[in-house]
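Support request, please re-run this one:
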Amino acid sequence: MTTFDRYLLRRYLHVFLVFLLSTFGLFVVIDGFSNVDGFQEDTTSATAVMVRMADYYLYRSSQFFDMVGPILSVIAVMVVFAMLHKNSELHPLLAAGVPTYRLVVPLLVGTAFITALLMVNRELVIPRIAHHLRAPRNEEKAQTEDVQPIYDHESNILIGGAELIRGTNRLKEAEFVLPPGIADDLTPVRAPIATFHQEAKNRPAGWVLHDVQPLRSQLHLSEAGEKVIHAMPNENQLFIATDVSFHQLSNRGQSFSYASTTELVRRVQNPSYGNSSVRSLALHVHSRLMQPLMGFILVFVAIPLIVRKESRGLVSNIALCTGVMGAIFGVTQLGMYLGKVSLISPSLAAGAPLIVSGTLAAWLSDAAQS
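Re-run finished. Output below.
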């Protein structure tokens, strides 16, 4: 890597960092002032409010980086080339025989670095802090969340309850309704507390019900029910095997966005999920896998638009590039919508923007100054 390559890389990372900090600061100011009542609830101390806000936005910074990182990585490339053009740094390089696309190499290195950070954040950080990201602004309310009952589509057991306790995998006032086929008749099984346990070597994933009613000895189970409902050493406890986890009982429309890709693939292959849920998960998985490649292709779309051979000026180039990026974003959203309503397959919904942007990048390749 040459001295000028390192110069471009430093400029790219500097621009990206400035945009990230400024946009996150703007988000904190707007969101904080709009929801200040939520932070002030149940407290009169200004210090307590500031601590609560700092804790809340510290966790939100990871989610914000995941949301805007791909966009800012492309905007940073646009800004770097716009600055090269504005400061008349581009023409001496072209006159020396350095092709325009040779200057892309350090920017691709920077894009790869940002993409790697995004992947680490998405796969390792966000799943570990997911319960904080679901929490509201009020510290007391952050301890629990409402339950949305859900069916286990493999056993047809309906799982519900009063509320979930964050960070504990515990469900209060749990109710598991056993259908005919699992029990002789429709049978509700209730417990003050139920705890979800992940799959281990000696047992499947499922819920342990404490102080359960009725007891295991009082249940009339079928042969299929015997494989799902298991006795525990303590007679007042019951284990119900199911892959319906703690996080699926609340905010199901967003819970998959906090999971790692490995977990999403496992859920797609799990027969406990309904067809609509599996389709949404598959669409999200395909979109997540396509996103890194999409970032690299958008770099090759942006550069010929910023440094066009025939242009009326830098401002018009930036405006045109912004419009094209907006159109690609519209194609992306249209593909996601068509995928959600089952008009096209999840793979096509996620891949269509990649095909469009790749074709556009190839078509525009000769438009750049050289």
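Strands lie at 144-146, 150-152, 157-160, 163-165, 170-178, 187-197, 206-210, 229-231, 237-241. The longest strand covers residues 187-197.
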